[in-house]
Structures are given as structure tokens and as C-alpha cells.
Amino acid sequence: MQKSKIKRIAAVLLGTGLCLLMPIRPQTADAAADQKITLTCRQNETILQGVQWTLYEIGERDGNEIRFNDALASYSLDLGDLSADAVDTAAKTLECYVIAAGLQPIAQGKTDANGELVFDGLDNGLYLAVGKTLQVNEICYFPSTLLLEVKDGDTGLSYDAFPKFYAENRSSLDKNYIVKKVWVDDEAGNIARPVNVTVDLYEDGALRDTVTLSDENKWQYRWESLDATSSWTVVEREIPVNYEVMIDYNSQQYLIRNSYKPTTEVTTTVTTVSAQTTTTSAPPTTTITTATKERLVQTGQLWWPVLPLSVGGVLLIGTGITVKDGKKKDEE
Amino acid sequence: MKSNVWKVLILLGCLMILAAALLCVYNIREGKNAGAAAADTLSALRQEIPEPAGTTAVTETVPTGEDLFALYETTTAASETAPPDIVINSDAYCGYLEIPVLGLELPVQSGWSYPALKKSPCCYSGSALTNDFIICAHNYPSHFGRLGSLTTDDRILFTDTAGIVHTYAVSGTEIIDGGAVTQMFSGQSEDWDLTLYTCTLGGQSRVTVRAYRVTDDADTPD
Questions:
Q1: What are the residue ranges in chain A where pLDDT is below 70?
Q2: Which of A83, A223, A277, B164 could form a disulfide with B57 if both were Cys (CB 3.0 to 4.6 A apart)?
Q3: Could you report the per-residue pLDDT of B83-121, keeping only the tens digit for each?
Q4: Which of B9, B66, B76 sits opposite A323 (nearest CB)?
Q5: pLDDT value at position A158?
Q6: DSSP element (H, E) containing A3
Q7: Does residue B132 lie in a domain region?
Q8: CATH hierarchy code of domain A2-171
């Protein structure tokens, strides 16, 4: 029984990822408005009633690309390849920026006695379902955020989703959170990074704190004594020029990853940044002489002439002796 | 005229043998001087470097459990903790190399040039922290002259200027043509973490030793 549930959950998540990779089919207005998403919330054998979910419409598919709504279009988000493995992190990244952008939800509701919640009357498009932590007695259930695609189906336009939860006893919850920022794919010394970035912390959608990450604090910051039952998210307020951002988190950590993704018009040597942001070069690497690409370093001593010189010398001496002996014989 | 031909031949022969002998003496003296210079530098370098930490600086890169930061610890450490070079007699050194099987202990300069190579092995490319370290040295007996005798699993230790010991195990030896630069760099950070090379006696090819990083006495690559 348990295995079948896990398989169903895995199948839905995998299907979500695969659906996102499939080209979207032309929609028909009549069919589109009749579609629905059913969220079923259970943790092991426990039916989770009263889990609050908020549904956002974030955009739509355009071939293999995602066309975000206006509120999100200005952010350079790194959503990976949207494969089954990457879709969870993509959903978390979107969640953070949906909240920061103040995107208005299109629906909200709580799961019923069966742990189910239905969002109906949906158009084709991409949706983000964000759940709120549910506390049952002393156990806190933290729902995963879901990225879902709704598109025309042949019959029964319903999409079942089974969010993942992790449960933890309230008394053992760690109320300290660390945010860490990393840079990837920009090791070349000629790429400029901002000297600092601003990170906003949101509690249940409201801005609670703003910190600056830089070399001085090793690009990380620790928040202490936060309410563990709240939904906390972080965003990088200004995504650096030529970078994309991905945000991942767990119960204690927030990872903000900036990947260097220059636009095709910008060469890697250009370090243009916004007027408000001061930049500096990436940390210099160890000063090492650039290796020549023409030929490897000549690291041998001059040994090779020894053999021909020796052999040649012996031959010449031998020849000389032979000539001398020949001359003696001639004289005799 | 003919009577003097044999004298000329013998004289030329003697001169050639003398030249060969002088070349041998020069090479041997150069090798000894290089060995002595390296030993002196190593002695000074050891005094400047803190006591070896005994562990490698780069740890396992595979994230453990739900630790989101683990995957990036190596990169961060590499960029933040690259120790500064130590300058001795106007030459910058990034650490020293030990090859216990050959009884070698040699300082390593952070950049290479032909005059520098007469004193010690030099960093040709990369670094220990980025697992793409290539060190070249002359084939003096006191430097890398016996490199080709290393065998699989022989240990190589590199101690950087922060005193961090990076331990490697030999994975293999190959002969690379002197013009095959691409082949020298092939597989870096994937198939090997450290490469040592020197010229063959003929000077046309390079004896190349590949090694991978190990944790202390572990037998498997990290």
C-alpha cells in the first residue's frame, strides 16, 4: 500500500517534469476553462486536513520556453532543464520570486477531511501551488511547492498532484536559518561580480529583514530565533547583470546560486553592470605563468650529443689508427 | 700531407670524446647544483610554512543528506583559501613536493621559466585546490630524473604554503610527445588531479605521471 502511494507520487512528479518538456498543443477555449487540479495531502497514513494552499498562475509554455507573466518576466531565473530532478528546485525558485513580486494568487483553499483540495475552472498554463505549514498537535508538516502545467486533455480534464511533506516535532525545530550565496560558471578572472548582493527575507509573504552578503561575511548570513512554523523565503533583490538565479532551501538552509549566463550580445570580457551596483573583478587566482599552448616545456638536459660524440670520436680514432697502420705497411 | 691524416683523425676523435666527457661533467655538475639549490630553498621554505596539517584541503564534494551548501564548499574553499606564495631569493614558491618512494623532497615554484627550472620544479598549470595541478621539472637525477620509475599507487605529497598536505596516488605513467599540449591537459580534474612531467633523455618526449587525490592512506580516489 505504502509502496503504491510512493509510486503514485513519484509518477505525478515525474509526469509533471516530463509534461513541461513536451510542446504544448493548441488550446481550445471551451475545453481550457474546464480543467482542474486536485491536491491530495497525506503523510504516510495520516490525512492532512486543513493544509492551506495558494495557487498562482505564473505563465504558459511557448514551445520549450516558458513565457512568464509580467510580474515575473523581469527576473532572470535559473530553472534548470525542468526535468523530474530539477523541477522541485525550479518550483522553490519560482515560489520565492512569486512572493517577492507580489503576484496575486488566483485561488486559495484548504484541504478537506480527505486531505483533498480542488482548484477548478483553470485555463491552460503553468501554475505554482504553494502550501502553508500545518501543525497537528506537536507535529509540523511542511509541504513542498508544486509546479504544474495544465493543458488540454482528451477527456477528464483533471490533474492529480500529491505534494510531498516532511514532518518534524515542533519542539525539535531549528529556528535558525542560514542563507548562503554561491557563484558558479564564472571563474574566469575577467568576469565582474557585484561586490555585494541584497537579500530579502519574507515571512508568510511579508518582508521581514534585509541583509547584505559580500566577501566580508563570506556571502552568508544567519538568522536566529525565527518562528519555525512560518513560511520563510528569501530572494536576491537585484539579480546581477549576466547572471541567473536559482534558490533552493531546506529546513535550515537557503542557497542562492548565481550562474553566469551572458546574453549573446555581450562578450565575456564586458563587465557592464547597473548604475546602482558597484562591481569588482572575481577573486584573483594564484599567479601562475600561463602555460604555452605551442609546445611543452623543455625539461631535458643536453644528453643526446654524448652518444654520437663518443661513438664518432672512437670511430675517428680507430680510423686514424687504421690509416697509420696502413701507412706503416706501405713504407715497409 | 697524407702522412698527417691519421694524426688529424685521432685528434678529432679525441676532441669529440673530450667534448662528450665535458658535456657529461657539465650535466652532472648542473644536476648537482640544482639539487643543492633545491635543498637550500626547501630548508628555507620549511621554516616559513606552518606545520603540516595532515589533511587535504579539498574535501568530498558529494553533498551529504540535505546539506545544500556541501556541493559548493570546495569551490568556495578553493577561491577563498588559496594561500599566498612564499618568496625566497626573489622566487615565489607555492609549496613543496615529496615523493617518498624516490626519496625526493623538492620546493615548487608558482610559475615557470627556464632559469627557474634550473633551481626547482615549477607549477606549469593549475593548482592543488582546483585538482588540475601540473608540475614540470628538469630530468636531473635530483629533480624528476627518476620519475619514470614510479608505479601505480605510489604516494605523492604536496604541501602548500598554508601547511595543508595534499596526498595523491599514482594512477599511471605515459610518454607524451613534446608538442602534444592538448594531451597533457586531457582529463584534468576528472581522470587525474596531479600531473608531474619531465623530458625523456632524448628531450623530444615527456615522461608524464598522473595521480589522483586520496584522503590520507585511502586507496580509492576522492
A1: 1-33, 64, 152-158, 174, 185-191, 263-294
A2: B164
A3: 888 888 888 899 999 999 999 999 999 888 888 898 899
A4: B9
A5: 61
A6: helix A2-21
A7: yes
A8: 2.60.40.10
User: What domain range is B11 assigned to?
Assistant: 2-213
Does residue B219 contact residue B169 with C-beta atoms inside 8 Å?
A: yes
Cβ <8 Å between B17 and A218: no
Number of domain units in chain B: 1
Tell me which architecture the domain covering A177-281 has in CATH. Answer: Sandwich (2.60)
Integer Cα distance of B162 and B94 in angstroms: 9
Per-domain residue ranges of chain A: 2-171, 177-281
Kindly list the residues from chain B whose CB atom is less than 8 angstroms away from the CB atom of residue A307: 20
Nearest CA to A316 out of B24, B23, B17, B2 is that of B17
The percent of residues in chain A predicted with pLDDT above 90, rounded, is: 24
Rounded to whole angstroms, how far apart are CA atoms A184 and A260?
A: 7
Q: Tell me if domain A2-171 and domain A177-281 are identical in fold.
A: yes
Whether A317 and B114 lie within 8 Å, measured CB to CB:
no
Question: Does the structure's ipTM exceed the value 0.90?
Answer: no
Q: Is residue B221 part of a domain?
A: no
> Cβ B19–A295 below 8 Å, yes or no?
no
Distance, in Å, from the CA atom of A253 to the CA atom of B67, rounded to the nearest integer, reads: 8
